[in-house]
Amino acid sequence: MKVYRSLEEFTKLPLAVVTQGTFDGVHAAHQIILNRVKLLASELGGETVVITYDPHPRMVLFPEDHGLQLLSTLEEKITLLSEQNIDHLIVLPFTKDFSRLSSLEFIRDIIVNKIGTKYLVIGYNHRFGKNREGSFAHLKEFGPAYGFQIQEIPEQDIEHVAVSSTKIREALLRGEVGLAAKFLSKFYSLQGKVIEGRKLGRTIGYPTANVEPLNPLKLVPAHGVYAAFVEIKGKKYGGMLNIGNNPTVPGKGRSIEINIFDFNEDIYNQNINIGFVEKLREERTFDGLDALKTQLHIDKLQTLAIINAKCTAN
Prior knowledge:
Shape: elongated
Largest sheet: 6 strands, parallel
Structural class: alpha/beta
CATH class of the largest domain: Alpha Beta
Distance between the termini: 23 Å
CATH topology of the largest domain: Rossmann fold
Number of helices: 10
Helix content: 25-40%
Number of domains: 2
Radius of gyration: 22 Å
CATH superfamily of the largest domain: HUPs
């Protein structure tokens, strides 16, 4: 997949089959749209083009709203779209000026003149252009005049997978990482940097890597203990992960810590990728470190069983 960070880098195609959107998470409903784009391109002998935006439009349109949490960072989104075998990905800088483009300007100047669109695929109820004025009706009106056809994915084709980025965010914020994995067609992941911790875990036989998310906008699932895996330098390990305030060891504030199985290397300041497999339990206070150690042993046995059952199938 070729990636373009601006329209100036892109050379107009003779036959482009195009879709556009934020594609946060590249989840199952997104994949329905992408599969239709690929099918049409194959039938017509064209090339697939996906248009997405950076930063997320909400950051520009509603800068006072600090609640945005991303399912995928831009680099993660690029990787996910590459896995969908798209030919071209255009990452348009989303600015105030760009947001003021009318639906006609967007269609004429970008979709047609810059990209060479012959077929545009959109999800139902898709809106675009200044104040979201553009609609399927606009596209049907402008299509014949500018030489492209439009296909809208019907509501029932999207709704049968019962998924949206909002539903995935809500599931993760409830700790339902298994449901999120079903919606995403893969485990939800979080990239982070290993930072210095208090090293208390190693005193009870469960050393942990303290992780700081690389992107502060990346959604962190609900507090609790999770079965997880971690990728380090291309190698995958199982582990049990805690998100929360460590009530048995107070004074830390929120932390993300993972005990990595069968691993004993110094990875401070290295980037790792965590995959959330299943939530084990809520975080709770124990009557001292011995009680905590006993529970961690139970958590590890449960985690090993879950990972052996689920990760081998993914």
